[in-house]
Amino acid sequence: MSHQPPISLWPDPNALGPVTDLYELTMIVGYLSSGMAGKQASFELFVRKMPPNRAYLVFAGLEQAVGDLLRLAFSPEQVEALRGWPMFRNVPGEVMDALAALRFEGDVWAIPEGTVVFPGETLLRVTAPLAQAQWVETYLVASLAYPTLVASKAARIVSVAGGRALLEYGARRGHGPHAGFLAARAAYIAGFAGTSLAEAARLLGIPASGTMAHSWVQAFPDEPSAFAAFARTFGGSSTLLVDTYDTLEGVRRAAAIEPPIPAIRIDSGDLDDLTRRARAILDESNRSSVKIMVSGDLDEQRIAALVEAGAPVDGFGVGTELITSRDAPAMGMVYKLVELDGEGKYKLSPAKKTYPMAKQVFRQRDADGRFAGDHVTRADEAAEGEPLLVPIVRGGRLVGPLPTLEAVRDRCREQLAALPDRLRPLDARPDYPITYSDRLEADARRLMDRVNRAGI
Q1: Domain CATH code at residue 269
Q2: Read out DSSP for 123-154?
Q3: I need a surface site. Which of 167, 185, 352, 455 has the fewest CB within 10 A?
Q4: Are 180 and 273 part of one and the same domain?
Q5: β-strands 57-58, 359-365: how paired?
C-alpha cells in the first residue's frame, strides 16, 4: 500500500487560474480555438432575488475579489495537468499554451463596498476580451456572494443590538477555515466591534476579542483556582466564563476576584433571567463596573428579544448564526453576458430575464437623505441621483488605492442610516423601488423582436 503526504486544498495565491468551474475553462479553450477570444465582452454581476427574510443587502468582499483577480494565472503544472484531461486531449497545443499566458487585462466597475444594495441592479461590471471576462465568473461570484451574505446578516444584528458591543465568534463554525477570515471582515464592515479569529484580527487590524473555553475551567481542580489563574495571567483583559458548572455560583466567584475583572460571559441557559440575577450579584458585591457578555447560538431575533426585555447585557458574541447565515444561507448572485462587440446580449428564460448592454445605477434620495429608489440605465446615459458604479480597474490595473477597511465601515454606517424606515424591521417586506430606463427597455424590445423574426 503506497502512502502520500496529505493534500492541501488551499490554492496557491499565484496560481488561481483553475480555481473556477470546468465549464469556464472549456469555454475559454473553445473561444481560443474559434478565434473569438479577443471579442470585447461586458458581463455584469447582480443578485437575482432577495434571500428570505431580507429587505436589503450590504455589498462586501470587493477588496479581496479584486486583489486576487489581478493576479489570476495558471502555473505550468496546472496547464500540463489540464492537457491530459479527456476534454482537452484533442485541443491544439498552442491553444493550451495560451492558457499559461492568460491574465486579466480588462476593466472593472463596481459599487463601493459597504453600500446597501438590492436585487436586480448591477453590482459589478467586467469589460474585457471574451476569454478573460468568461474566466473570472466563478471566482467573482464566489468571492462576493459569501461576504455580502454575512455582511447583510451582520447588519440585521447591528440594527437590533441597541448600540451594545457585538463580537464575531464564528471561525470554528464556518464552512472551512477561510470562511472565518471573510466573515470577520464582513461583520466588521457592518458594525461588529471585533473578532475572535486571531489571524483575521492581525491581518485586518480588527480588534481581537476572546475569553476562555469551558475546558480551561475543567482543567483546574476547581472553578475558583481557574478564575484566579486566568485573572492573574491576563489582568485587566480578563473576561471569565461563568457557566461551566453553576452559573450564579460562578458569578459570585468571579465577583470575588481582586482586583475586579472587567467582564463575565454567560454562554447558556435563560439569558434574560441569568443576566438579571448576575447583575444583582455583581452590584451587591460592589462590582457595578463588571460588564456582562452573553453568547450561545444568538441571532438577531434572540438579541432583539433580550434588548426589548431590558436584560442587563453589555455585549453579544455571535458565531454560528452569523458565519452560516443560517436562516438565509445562500445568495442568488449571478454573472451574465450583457454586451459583445457593442451588441446587446440578454436572456429571456422564465424568472431569469436580463437587460442587454453595460449599465449604471443611479440612487435617488428624499428630502431627508433617505434612499428613495434606484434607477438602472445604460452606462452611457445620465440620470438624476448618485451614480453607484465607479471604476476600480482599467486595463488590468487598479485605478487608484482601494478604500481602507475603516472607510468601508464608515460608508456602511452611513448607508444603513439612510435606509427608509419601512426596510429596517426584521420582518420588513423587500419593496424598494428599482426602475429601468426607457433606453434599456427599448434595447430589450428591439433585440427580442430580432430574435422573434429570426425564429431563434
Answers
A1: 3.20.20.70
A2: SEEEEEEHHHHHHTHHHHHHHHHHHHHHHHHH
A3: 455
A4: yes
A5: unpaired
What is the helix (H) or strand (E) element at residue 277, kind and residue range?
Answer: helix 271-284
Yes or no: say if 333 and 47 are a contact pair by the CB < 8 Å rule. yes
Q: State how far the alpha carbon of 153 is from the alpha carbons of 325, 334, 400, in Å.
A: 6, 20, 30
- Helix 271-284, helix 247-255: angle, nearest 10: 30
Residue 41 near residue 127, CB atoms below 8 Å = yes
Alpha-carbon gap, residue 137 to 364, rounded angstroms? 30
**Domain extent for 248:** 176-323
Task: Say what angle helices 93-101 and 22-34 make with each other, to 10 degrees.
Answer: 120
Give the three cell numbers for residue 454: 429570426
> Coil, strand, or helix at residue 6?
coil
Question: For residue 455, what pLDDT is reported?
Answer: 62
Give, for 340, the enclosing helix (H) or strand (E): strand 333-340
Residues of the chain with pLDDT under 50: none
- Domain end: 276, 291, 323, which one? 323
The answer to whether the peptide bond before residue 259 is cis (omega within 30 degrees of 0) is: yes
Instruction: Write down the pLDDT at residue 2.
Output: 57
- Measured CA to CA, the distance from residue 138 to residue 45 in angstroms comes to 11
Q: Indicate whether 167 belongs to any domain.
A: no
* Geometric angle at alpha carbon 172, from 171 and 173, rounded to 5°: 90
Place of cell 491581518: 203
Same domain, 443 and 378: yes
pTM assigned to the model: 0.95
Q: For residue 208, what is the DSSP state?
A: B
pLDDT tens-place string over residues 255-285: 999 999 999 999 999 999 999 999 999 999 9
> CB within 8 A of 349, min separation 6: which ones?
none
Q: Please give the angle made by the CA atoms of 37, 38 and 39, to the nearest 5 degrees.
A: 100
